[in-house]
Amino acid sequence: MRRIVAQTRKELTQIVRDWRTLALALILPIVLLLLMSTAISLTVNDLPVVVQDFDDSSASHDFIDAMRASITLHVVSWPVNKSAEQALVANAARAVVIIPAHFGRDIARGVNSPVQLLVDASDANTAKLISGYATQITTAYNRQTAGATQAGPVQTAVRLWYNPGLSSKKFYGPGVFVLGISMFPPLLAALAMAKEGEHKTILQVYVSSISAHEFLLGKIIAFMAVALAECFVMCLLLFTYFGLRFAGDPTPFLIATILYAFCVASFGTMVGATIPNQAASMQAVALGGFLLVFLLSGLIFPIENIPAGLRWISNFIWGRYYIEIVRDALLQGGGWPAVWFKVLIVGVIGTTFYGIAWRGMRKMQVKV
Amino acid sequence: MKRLLQFLFNYRLLALIKKEFNQIRRDRRLAISLILPPVVQLTLFGFALSANVTNIRLGLVDDSRSPESRELIATLTESKSFRLAGYYFSVNELGDAVSRGNVDAGVVVPYDYARDLARDRPTTVQFLLNAMNANTATISRAYAEGVIQSYNTGLRGKGIRVQTFSGMDLARRGQVQLQPAFLYNPGLVDSWFIVTGVFGLLLILNSSLVSSAAMVREREAGTIEQLLMSPASTSEIIIAKITPLFILLCMMMLVAIAVLKLAFDVPFQGNILFLLLGGALCILSGISIGTVIATFSKSAQQAQLTSFFVNPPLSSLSGALNPVEAMPKWLQPVTVLNPIHHFATIVRGSTLKGSGFMDLWPNFLGLLIFTIILVSLSVWRFRKQLS
Question: What's the predicted TM-score (pTM) here?
Answer without folding.
Answer: 0.82
